[in-house]
Amino acid sequence: MYDIMEEEEFEAVELPDITVELPDIACCFCPQAEFNGKSDSLFFNDGVRRIDFVLVYEDEDMKEIDKNRTFQKRKQRREYFEASLMKMGMELEAARSVSDEKLLFVKVHMPWDVLCTYAEVLHIKLPIQPNDLSTTSSPFNFLSCITRHFYPSEDLIAKETEYFTAPFEKDRLEYFYVKDRDLFFTPSMRSRMAYYILSRAPYEVRGNIKKFGVTKLLDGGVYKAAYPLHDCRFNVRSKEDECPNERYLLYNEWAHPKSFYKMQPLDLIRKYYGEKIGIYFAWLGFYTAMLALAAIVGLGCFIYGYTTQETSTWSKEVCDPLIGGNIVMCPQCDKECTYWRLNSTCESSKKLCIFDNYGTLVFAVFMAIWVTVFLEFWKRYQAELEYEWDTVEFLEQEEQPRPEYEAKCNHERINPVTRVKEKVPYTACGRCIRVSLGIGTVLFWIVLILASVVAIIVYRLAVFFSFSTRLQSDLKELEPFKEYVTAQMATSVTASIISFVVIMVLNILYERVAIWITDFELPRTKTDYENSLTLKMFLFQFVNYYSSCFYIAFAKGKVVGYPGQPVYLLGKYRNEECDPGGCLIELTTQLTVIMGGKAIWNNIQEVLLPWMKNLIFRYCTRVGSEKVIPRWEQDYQLQPIGKLGLFYEYLEMVIQFGFVTLFVASFPLAPVLALVNNLFEIRVDAWKIITQFRRMVPEKAQDIGAWQPILQGVAILAVASNAMIIAFTSDMIPRLVYYWSFSVYPYGEHSSHTMQGYINNTLSVFDIQDFSNKISLSYFRYRDFRYPPGHHRQYEYSIYYWHVIAAKMAFIIVVEHIVYLTKFVLSYVIPDVPYTVREQIKREKYLSQVILHETNLKLVTKRLKPLGGDYDQPNQP
C-alpha cells in the first residue's frame, strides 16, 4: 500500500520511536565540495560530471534539531531521500552557499547507464539516421533576400540537422546515431529524466506505507527548491568552453526588445525548454500572425463607420432639430425622470453608427470564416511540429502515471486489455463520488457568478434611480436629456468596473477550489490532470468573463414592457432599458473595460511582481563584489515557476480569443487590440521566462491539449453569437426591413428605396393622458413597434414588429447555415496533416522497423541455422 499524506498530517503525528531504514549505502550524506570559483560552471567540482538537477535546503543547527521535532523529521527524510537517489544510480555533490552559509545546494548527476535506462523507460526518441528525403523548395524563395532579415541570425542560431528518430532501446545502442556520448542526450532530456527519478524516489517507509516524491518534500519544507540549471547568464556570454550559451542566444534573438520584429527561434526554444513550452509559443505566434489579417479588416470596418457617422440618414434624423428636436420621448424611469427630446442623444447616435453599420455585418461573416481557416491551418502547422519534434507517437499509454496517483493505488482491478490484476486508487463507486462532487462544486460556483451578475444589475438600477432623483430638482420640463445620458453612461462605466473587480476576485477564489477538486479526483497522468483542470477553469472563466456581456447583448432592454405597463425587477426596480444610443454602445464599453483591465492586470501580475521580487531578493542577499556567485546559486535567486506552468498563459489567450470571436460584431477593433497585445505578450513572456524565472523542467507535449477542442467550441458558438448580436442587439435588421419593405416611394419607373423617415417609423406613440403627471402634451414616443392609441389593438405589437422578428430569425438561420457549410467545406478541403509530413512519418517508421526490429530476426536465424534449414533470407515466410 502506497500513500502520500499531506505535510500537515505528518506534523500532527507523534514520532517518538521513528526508525528510518536507509538503503545499503555506507554514508547517507552526499559528499561536499568547495566551489571551484567558476561562476558559469555546469559541472561538479571535478569539471567532468554534468549537473542535471539542483536541490536546495537550509542546514538547521544541531541544537535546533535536538529541540524541534519538525527539524529532526525533515533531516531524516532528507537523508533517506538522498540515500535513495544514490541507490538508484544518481551521483550527488553538495556545496555551501556563497551568500548564506545556512543554505546547501545538492547537485545531481545522472551517469551514462542511468540515462540509457530511463531514456528507454520514458520512450525518448533519439536519432538513428540523418533525414535523406529531399525538401521541396518554397515558391517564395526569391523573397529570401528580404525575409531573412525577419528571422534570427543563422550565424548565431544555426539550423539543426534533421534526423529520423526511434524510441531509444538500451540493448540496441549501436544502431543509434551516437557521435558523442556527452552530447547524445541533450540537457533538457537529462533534466526530464532526473525529475522523473526525483518524483519517485522514496523518503520515508513506515510499515506498508511508502512515501515518495520531491514534490511533497518541497511542500513540507524539507527542500526549499528543486530546479534544472540555466546554462549561462542571459546578458553575458559564458567563457566556459562546454557552455552552449543557449540562454544568451534566446535572450538576444528572441526576448530582447530589439528583436521584436523577428520570427521566433522555435527549434531552439524547444531544445532549451522542451516541447511543451515550444508548442505554446508556436501557437501564440501563429495566432498572432493570423490576427494581423483580421485586424486589417476590422480596422477598415471601423474607419468606414467613423467616416460615415455624419452622413448616415438615421443619425442625421436624430440630430435634426426639426425631426429629432420635435420628438418627445418617454421617461427612462418612474416618477423621478422627466420627458426628453430625441435630439439630445445626437452624439450617442453618431457613436452607434461607428459600430453599427453594414460593414459590421460583412466583418462578422468574415470573422466566422477566419476562425475556421485559423483552426484548420493550425492543425496542419501543429502536425509539422509533431513530426519535427518527435511527438507523433506520444500516446497516453506511454505517459507515466503521476506520483500522487501511484501513491494512492490501494485497490485492485482486472485490466480490460491485459486481463491482469493492477493497482488503482479507487473503485468505480469511489470514482463516481469524486466526479459528482467536482461537478456539484463547479455548478455551485457558476450559480454564484450568475448571482453576482444579478447583483450588478440591481446596482445599475439603484444608481440610475439615485442619479435621476438628484437631477430632478435641477431640470425643467422638456429640458434636453444630456444630464440623464451622462448619468446612464456613468452608471454603465462604474458597473463595468465593478464587474471587472468581481471577476478578478472570483477568479482568485475559484482557482483554489478548482485545484482542490482536481487533486481530489486524482487523474492518472499529468495530461489527464491538466485537461481536467483546464475544463473546470475555462467553464468557470467563460461564465465569469462573458456572462455580463451576454446579458447586455441578449437580455438588457428586451423585456421592459411599454409605458403604463412596465416590467419590474424584484417588484421594485423598473427593468433597465438600453442606453438611448442602443445596447451596442454599452456592450462595446463593457468589452473595452474588461479587455483593457485584464491586459493591465495580467502584465502587473506576470511581469512587474516577479521583477520586484527578484530585485528585493537580490538586494537582501547581496554580497561583496570580490565574491563569485556560482551558477546554481544565481538561479536560486530567480522566481520559481508555478505548479500550473503555462496554464494561465493559455487561459489568458483563450479568453482573449473568445472576446475577439464571440462579440466581434459589436466591437470590430477587438482584433486590433488583441494583435497589439499579443505582439507585446510574446516578447514579455519570453523576457519573463528567460530573465526572471528559474529554468522549467522540460516536458513532452504533442499538441496544445484540451485547449484545442475548447477553441473549436468557441468558434462554433461565435457564429451563433455574432448572428444574434446583429439580429437582436444592433438595429441592422430593422433598417433593412424598412429599406426593402416600407420605404418605397412609387414614382412610376423612378421608384426607389430610401432611409428617410426611418426614425419616425420605428418609434411608437403613447397617449400622455394615461400618465398621472400631466404636462401640456398630447403624446410622446418610445422605442418599440406597437399600435398607437385609438387603434382597436392599441399598444399591442404591430405587423411591423412581426416582420422584423421574422427577418431576424431568417437572418440567423441563413447566416448560420451558410457559415457552417463554409466551415465544413474548408475543414474537408484543408487536410490536417500535409502530404510531405505523412511521407516522412512513413519513412521514419520503415527505418525504425528495418534498423531496430529486423535485427532480432537476423539473430534468431543465426541461432537456428545449426539446426538445419536455409535461413539466409530472414524476410521470407
Q: Which terms would index this structure?
A:
877 residues, alpha+beta, 2 domains, two-stranded antiparallel ribbon, 9% strand, elongated, disordered N terminus, disordered C terminus, Anoctamin, Anoct_dimer
Compute the gyration radius: what is it?
Answer: 34 Å
**Strand portion, in percent?**
5-15%
**Unreliable sequence segments:** 1-28, 472-481, 745-751, 870-877
Main sheet summary: 4 strands, antiparallel
Structural class: alpha+beta
Overall average pLDDT? 78
Number of alpha- plus pi-helical segments: 27
The dominant shape is elongated
Query: Count of DSSP E strands?
Result: 20
The neighbouring-strand order within the major sheet is: 2-3-1-8
Helix content: 40-55%
User: What is the CA–CA distance across the termini?
Assistant: 48 Å
How many distinct folded domains?
2
Blueprint (SSEs and pairs):
Elements: H1 7-12, E1 53-58, H2 62-67, H3 69-87, E2 91-96, E3 103-109, H4 112-121, E4 125-130, H5 144-147, E5 163-167, H6 181-184, H7 187-198, E6 202-206, E7 209-212, H8 214-219, E8 225-227, H9 246-255, H10 266-273, H11 275-308, H12 313-319, E9 328-329, E10 340-341, H13 346-355, H14 358-388, H15 403-407, E11 411-414, E12 421-424, H16 428-472, H17 482-521, H18 526-554, E13 561-562, E14 565-566, E15 568-569, E16 573-574, H19 583-620, H20 631-636, H21 647-662, H22 670-692, H23 707-729, H24 732-742, E17 744-745, E18 752-753, H25 758-761, E19 763-767, E20 779-783, H26 799-829, H27 835-864
Antiparallel strand pairs: 1-3, 1-8, 2-3, 4-5, 6-7, 9-10, 11-12, 13-14, 15-16, 17-18, 19-20
